[in-house]
Amino acid sequence: MGGALEARGIDASDGKLSSQAEGEIYVEDKVLVIKKIRVHYLLKGCPDDKREVAERAHSFHASRCPVAKSIDKAIEISTDLSFE
């Protein structure tokens, strides 16, 4: 996500972009299985005139993320982006 923002002139360095993830874990056949992951991105200091660009980058981020693409058939992934 940070690379996509930086490529569009949005500074995501030095802690300006952070994320927090949480998962839902279930027991199947006595084995713990991750079924859902939610990632919340927080972007600090984004100029108002760049927020639409950041939201657009976020909208396709998961489809270009190697981790998301690797696990998307097994685990439901959702993301959101907020600004501070």
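^ that was protein a. below is b, sequence first then the tokens
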Amino acid sequence: MTRASRRSPHGLLVLCALAVALNVLGAPTRASAQSNVTAFMTLYGWADNSPPGPIIAHPNCANGGHGSAGGTGTFSDPVTFATDVNELGWCHLIYVPYMKRYFIHEDECSECDSNWNSFHLYRFDMWAGGDANSRKKPEKRALRACEFMWTRANSIADPNNPTVIVDPPSNLPVTTAPIFSGPTTCWSPVSITNPGKQSSALGHPVSLQINATDASPSETLAYQVANLPGGLSINPASGLISGNPTVLGRRHVTVTVSDSVDSASITFIWTVKKH
């Protein structure tokens, strides 16, 4: 399969500098069993597979493989990913912490081939999903947006590329929620319900529960808030905002909820009046 590049001009400059450095210092080597590597993580789906659809290059993996692109993300049913076969052999598993999923190498990626051959740096292209409807709007646009949302950094040379575990153990935290579900749903690991506009009276007790859920039941959520009216605070473990407002005015309050690797935020208006 092939995919369009998303490299930014900054990424290209980094790559040029990297090429010079690799000539001097040498390139990283292929990963050994159960190792951590830094990788440029991209995604592809039904619409931008080549040809469009779920066809994969290597539908013969016995250890949780598939006849076509798919998988739920567990150790026994990993999601398809594509890369250069010289970078990582067929049927190898990786675990992506920020996606909370296992992936299995059963597809080819021409950009990954080029990246590995030129720089010997890791690039993994994860299957996002989609179906025949994702070849047209609105699903096509939503699928591309979801792929972009979960792509990490700008190029294989980006120092912010995430760490991925090659040939991982079987007991790591997993979510099985689809990365993309048609027509427009993109996976969100942390979901928060926005309570909407709030209005309180100066000096009167306040109690507002922020409700959030995590796609991984094993995760613990932590709550933070910015720009609360004076006199109010949030419980970092439960998400309960309480106290007695001491300052009049209108605030744009932002609540951020985080687990071990992901976070989500909401913003709402809170007005404190005299009565």
